[in-house]
Amino acid sequence: MVVLGSLQTLATCKDAAGIAGNIFAFGLFLSPVPTFRRIIRNESTEQFSGLPYIYALLNCLITAWYGLPMISSDNLLVTTVNSVGAVFQLVYVIIFIRHAEKAKRLRMLGLLLTVFGLFAVIAIGSLLIVDFEARHLTIGFISCAALISMFASPLFIINLVIRTRSVEYMPFHLSLSTFLMSTSFLLYGIFNFDPFVYVPNGIGTLLGIIQLFLFSYYKSSSRDDSREPLIVSYS
């Protein structure tokens, strides 16, 4: 009876963490909206790159596939959040293609077809693996590697903030959303005993903490600097 109660509590905690992660993820999915408002308004992609959205689309598709019952056990909340994410990224890519120059448009179309082709190979290939555990491990490692590689972007931003001593290019809401979503899925993975979920999200949580610390440090530093007289000393 005690064991049953513990298992039910664990399942409840896991579901709560997963639902929270799904909610916090919307902060990340909506973060490019100002960029695409500008693209639509100016009818040009200007100097913006579409590669982050292409890569995010592939990442969402792979991770959503990993969460399906045929691949892993009891991970549907991983599928829901990444399915929604894939829709957002696809919409962003379509808008980008519509407003891009001809050369950039053709390149983005080629990359989009490559993403769908690569995902089809991964999905169909995994279904050809008869053993469930082997299928789970194969897609798990691919999904985990894709998630970890996504953290190259936060690392670049962290480096930029430290070099420029400015948080101009690190919006607070984006850092907070990253931290909250990663923490939620870190707990979700722990409660579900799934290292393919808690390892990459553990890294995401750590990077989120670093971003929030840097935001607090350099934001206050910027305010302090702004109070100083605007006098240059040549001594």
Automatic annotation (TrEMBL):
Q: What are its GO cellular component terms?
A: endomembrane system; plasma membrane
| Protein biosynthesis among keywords | no
Q: Where is the chain membrane-spanning?
A: 16-36, 48-68, 80-97, 109-130, 136-162, 174-191, 197-218
Q: Which InterPro entries match?
A: SWEET (IPR047664), SWEET_rpt (IPR004316)
Q: Which UniProt keywords apply?
A: Membrane, Repeat, Sugar transport, Transmembrane, Transmembrane helix, Transport
What topology in the membrane does the UniProt record assign? Answer: Multi-pass membrane protein
- The question of whether Nucleotide-binding is a record keyword is answered with no
Cite the Pfam families for this sequence: MtN3_slv
- Where is coiled-coil annotated? none
Q: What does this protein do?
A: Mediates both low-affinity uptake and efflux of sugar across the membrane.
Check the record and name the PANTHER family matching this protein.
Answer: BIDIRECTIONAL SUGAR TRANSPORTER SWEET2, RAG1-ACTIVATING PROTEIN 1
What is stated as this protein's family in its record? Belongs to the SWEET sugar transporter family.
Identify this protein by name. Answer: Bidirectional sugar transporter SWEET
Q: What is the scientific name of the source organism?
A: Sesamum alatum
Q: What is the lineage of its organism?
A: Eukaryota, Viridiplantae, Streptophyta, Embryophyta, Tracheophyta
